[in-house]
Amino acid sequence: xxxxxxxxxxxxxxxxxxxxxxxxxxxxxxxxxxxxxxxxxxxxxxxxxxxxxxxxxxxxxxxxxxxxxxxxxxxxxxxxxxxxxxxxxxxxxxxxxxxxxxxxxxxxxxxxxxxxxxxxxxxxxxxxxxxxxxxxxxxxxxxxxxxxxxxxxxxxxxxxxxxxxxxxxxxxxxxxxxxxxxxxxxxxxxxxxxxxxxxxxxxxxxxxxxxxxxxxxxxxxxxxxxxxxxxxxxxxxxxxxxxxxxxxxxxxxxxxxxxxxxxxxxxxxxxxxxxxxxxxxxxxxxxxxxxxxxxxxxxxxxxxxxxxxxxxxxxxxxxxxxxxxxxxxxxxxxxxxxxxxxxxxxxxxxx
Length: 351
Hints:
This protein is α+β, with helices and mostly antiparallel strands. It has eight helices and five strands, in the order ααβαββαβααβαα.
């Protein structure tokens, strides 16, 4: 009986010693695992989290940093890789240059070396008054900054505006839609090859045409965005000061009289030319007025003539009626024609 009790107590002591030894060794192992003095930076048996750089670039979470990692290691945020963003870079520059020709040559040479091109170039003005240039440049995105530095060196920058457009979301959406559309189109083509009836073939042809048109539209937009991302756009407005006119020596009296005469002569010639041009321009209107006056005058003359033709003969009444006898006739005024016996009356008067 005593031997059993002794065995139990020995077993309890061994268990207690093991427990106390394990508790004492835990802080030391923790210190070794955390990179404490004399310990290793990590255990070979415990797996460490994979670095962010090893995450495949195609996964949606590639390059992302969790909130806890950022909070615990704030210095690693700048070192964390970012996703492949699709950024469109744009700029507008206005500068004053000494010589437009030299500036144009420098810009053209720089674009040729970098693989860019001039999309638009418009020059206005004269050298005496000062020329102005409006250009639209397309330069590879990697040479966007060097081109702006070159423009700053060409002259005095009056204004500079830079902005970017992030089209990553639209770019990825177009990629996914194009991939889905191509898979759908391939499936429709396989169904079209296996179709048997005419109605099925017609329906499949319509669907294939619709999907093809939609794919072409998506690819067009995709290519446009790709070009905008690959080539940055820089709008440049340059102008140069005008060349001052050379100073002239004071004129003599004869020179001033000559200039005055020539000025007056040229003014008179210009006035005569303008008057002649105005008269020639009035000829069609004058001809029209002459024809109109002739027509109106002819109509008035016809109306007057018709009215005169309708009036009675002068000094008499209407036709078929005897003329009215005068109220008083002097003696001997009666003629032979006024009486029925005109001959007798004349004999009596003579007797």
